[in-house]
Design goal:
α2 (38-51) packs across α3. The protein is mainly alpha-helical. It has one domain (10-184). The chain is 46% helix and 8% strand. The chain has a three-stranded antiparallel sheet. The protein has a two-stranded antiparallel ribbon with strand order 1-2. It is built from eight helices and five strands. The chain has helices at 19-30, 38-51, 53-62, 69-75, 85-89, 93-97, 99-125, 180-184, and strands at residues 8-9, 12-13, 130-133, 151-153, 174-177. It binds zinc ion (ZN). The site of zinc ion has 8 residues, from loops.
Length: 185
């Protein structure tokens, strides 16, 4: 991995970031889960790439001792919903208001940032200096939605996920980009 690529992640250079850093950033940015969820999220990250965050979060809530029916009622979720004691213990005050979304949303944010980081690293390792923002997938990413097709200098990205993104998990996709046509002229 290239050294000191100049993109910050949680205040440190991206090339030093690990899965726990992506989980930790999502935990503090969304405030739905407490810090004790970090290792669970790290364990879920690799599976989430394959099955998707919603499915993996659901499987996590299914595992282990389940909370009581009274507690489910206090959370406003159905009696037959899956919710383990462990998952419950990871909810913050805000997470208690969105219990069925808390893990999936936090996992999604961590995964999207991790995938972006990997794209950056892959691009640099293959000699690309620019990325193109994919024009699709982000109609609810308000700030990013006007940036479709924009070319980003990797050295000027500065922060990941983008500081100006207002979505819970930035869904703008980045692709390694190089203007081969201009070079061929
Ligand atoms: Zn965004």
């Amino acid at each position: 991995m290239p050294k000191e690529i100049g993109i910050l992640f949680n205040g440190q250079d991206l090339c030093h970031a690990e899965d726990a850093d992506f989980a930790s950033e999502a935990i503090s940015a969304l405030g739905l889960l407490n810090e004790t969820s970090c290792s669970s999220l790290v364990a879920m990250l690799s599976e989430a790439r394959v099955l998707g965050p919603e499915q993996v979060a659901l499987e996590f809530r299914k595992q282990g001792t389940q909370i009581s029916k009274e507690r489910k009622k206090s959370l406003g979720i159905r009696r037959n919903s899956n919710f383990s004691e462990e998952a419950y213990s990871q909810l913050t005050v805000n997470g208690l208001k969105e219990p069925l979304r808390a893990h999936a949303a936090t996992l999604t944010r961590a995964m999207f940032a991790l995938l972006k980081a990997e794209t950056v690293q892959l691009a640099l390792a293959n000699g690309f200096n620019e990325l193109r923002i994919s024009p699709s997938h982000f109609s609810d990413c308000r700030r990013c939605s006007v940036r479709g097709e924009e070319i980003l200098q990797i050295s000027k990205i500065g922060q990941l996920p983008p500081l100006d993104c207002t979505r819970f998990a930035c869904s703008a996709w980045w692709q390694p980009y190089r203007d081969w046509l201009a070079e061929a002229k």
